[in-house]
Design brief:
Its EC number is 1.2.1.8. Pathway: Amine and polyamine biosynthesis; betaine biosynthesis via choline pathway; betaine from betaine aldehyde: step 1/1. It is an enzyme of class 1 (oxidoreductase). The chain folds into two domains: 6-254 and 458-481, 3-Layer(aba) Sandwich (Aldehyde Dehydrogenase, Chain A, domain 1), CATH 3.40.605; 259-440, Aldehyde Dehydrogenase, Chain A, domain 2 (3-Layer(aba) Sandwich), CATH 3.40.309. The protein is 41% helix and 22% strand. The chain is built from 15 helices and 23 strands. The longest helix is centred in the N-terminal third of the chain and has 28 residues, at 97-124. The radius of gyration is 23 Å and the shape is globular.
Length: 482
């Protein structure tokens, strides 16, 4: 794509439209413009909600089998354009092609999974409820909650969209989607696939734009029954405040400051690979980044030497370089934000082991070498706050109890990882951690069948699995006298 013409950034009522705003889209690896996308405003949001509201009564009456067929068609469409979507993902987001491939495959798997759940809904509807009285009979129904607003971030374009959109459509909801204005290109291609899937007009709507212009009025619209948001805690609070004005349902998937715990009997080679993947995949731009690495004292010295060597050996390069291991950060604002965290960490007394600067061979693009700190004060922002960049903090511990206390000492509780050769100890530690998902001796694999979300300030609600579908359903009981 080029910026020679403006791409329509509004899909409303089954038609593409130009918006009133212009959004310049940048390639983070080259700092060159990729495209200009027209963005919407409050008027566009109003039109999209109008279209979704008009379509809801009929879409809600469709069978689960009918909705499942549409979801399978979307999955097939994504599969057919897999290479195209990978290219857009890498050029717009800055991630390597092999990471983009994982993203696209996740989108396919998610739509397929929720197609199956949709198809199963017909047999589950109107279930009988046992009552203690023979004078009454009861049944329970799950019904779509209505028009829903979906607000998604820039770090995993299409993926977080699929995690919300597939269950919303499976439930029978109509949707207004706001993709990130930073990474709209893969989302627009996905929207084009959805537009060809056979959905009735108005069931799916998309409005590109900024959070202020599009996200805020979407969250505040009284006709929107639910808002599902993924992004920063600061913006999540604003979304929740807007939604509270009309007392609508809210799901939030927010930040994390997760730990990877290396117990005394861990395989060091495995521990180093998991720490590297947990901190540097997607250039660390993950809410699930295990950026606090806790290592048993007996292993700490050797572990740090190996992790430093692994980090320094990571090839940071253009996303389309065949040898790339880590790409660019998403834009200049994020790049400067991460550099600011590094500078403040140094000022707070943390010890820089490696990284912290641009690779010498990459004078352009938002590239940063994998960065490792030790001796990080427990009250510093580097240890406590989500950085969203390729920065790891390493600390040793003397006992299992100390490790668990350090891991749980956080405002967040999204994920955690445990590396141990003792299965019983690993399970014991996993059970003690305040996190929504714990990996044991495993990379950060995510399946549509398992829940996504966390404790404390990381989440309200859960995505994926049957819980993701239930998030877009209302429960209705019907009781009658007999």
């Amino acid at each position: 794509m080029s910026n020679s013409s403006t791409l329509n950034g509004l899909y409303i009522g089954g038609e593409w439209h130009a918006g009133s705003e212009s959004l310049q889209v940048i390639n983070p690896a080259t700092e060159e413009p990729l495209a200009i996308v027209s963005g919407g405003d409050e008027q566009a949001v109003n039109q999209a909600v109008n279209a979704a509201s008009a379509a809801f009564s009929q879409w809600a009456k469709t069978t689960g089998a009918e909705r499942g067929a549409v979801l399978r068609k979307i999955a097939s469409g994504v599969q057919a354009r897999r290479e195209r979507l990978m290219q857009l993902q890498s050029s717009n987001n800055g991630k390597p092609l092999f990471e983009a491939a994982i993203d696209v495959d996740d989108v396919i798997a998610t739509f397929d999974y929720y197609a199956g759940l949709a198809e199963a809904l017909d047999a589950q509807q109107d279930r009988t409820v046992d009552l203690p009285s023979e004078d009454f009979a009861a049944r329970v129904r799950r019904e779509p909650c209505g028009v829903v607003g979906l607000i998604v971030p820039w770090n995993f374009p299409m993926v977080t969209t699929a995690w919300k959109l597939a269950p919303a459509l499976a439930a029978g909801c109509c949707v207004v989607l706001k993709p990130s204005e930073v990474t709209p290109l893969p989302e627009l291609e996905l929207a084009a696939i959805i537009a060809e899937s056979g959905l009735p007009k108005g069931v799916f709507n998309l409005v590109c734009g900024t959070g202020l212009a599009v996200g805020a009025p979407l969250a505040a619209d009284p006709r929107v029954a639910k808002i599902s948001f993924t992004g920063s805690n600061a913006v999540g609070v604003q979304v929740m405040q807007r939604a509270a004005e009309t007392v609508k349902g809210v799901s939030l998937e927010l930040g994390g400051k997760s730990s990877l715990m290396v117990l005394a009997d861990a395989d060091l080679e495995l521990a180093v690979e998991l720490a590297s993947g947990g901190g540097f995949f997607n250039a660390g731009q993950m809410c699930s980044a295990t950026s606090r690495v806790l290592v048993a004292e007996t292993l700490a010295g050797e572990f740090l030497l190996r992790l430093k060597a692994r980090a320094e050996g990571i090839r940071v390069a253009d996303p389309f370089d065949p040898q790339v291991e880590m790409g660019a950060l998403v834009n200049q604002a994020q790049y400067q934000r991460v550099l600011g965290h590094i500078d403040r960490g140094l000022s707070a007394g943390a010890k820089l082991i490696c990284g912290g600067e641009r690779p010498e061979n990459l004078p352009r693009g938002y590239f940063l070498r994998p960065t490792i700190f030790t001796e990080v004060p427990l009250d510093s922002a580097l240890w406590c706050e989500e950085i969203f960049g390729p920065v790891l903090c390493v600390r040793s511990f003397a006992s299992e109890a100390e490790a668990i206390a350090l891991a749980n000492d956080s405002e967040f509780g999204l994920v955690a990882s445990v590396v141990s050769g003792d299965g019983e100890a690993a399970e014991r530690v996993a059970n003690a951690l305040q996190a929504g998902l714990v990996w044991i001796n495993s990379p950060q694999v995510i399946f549509p069948q398992t829940a996504w979300g966390g404790y404390k300030q990381s989440s309200i609600g859960r995505e994926l699995g049957p819980w993701g579908l239930q998030a877009f359903q209302e429960i209705k009981h019907v009781i009658r006298a007999v």
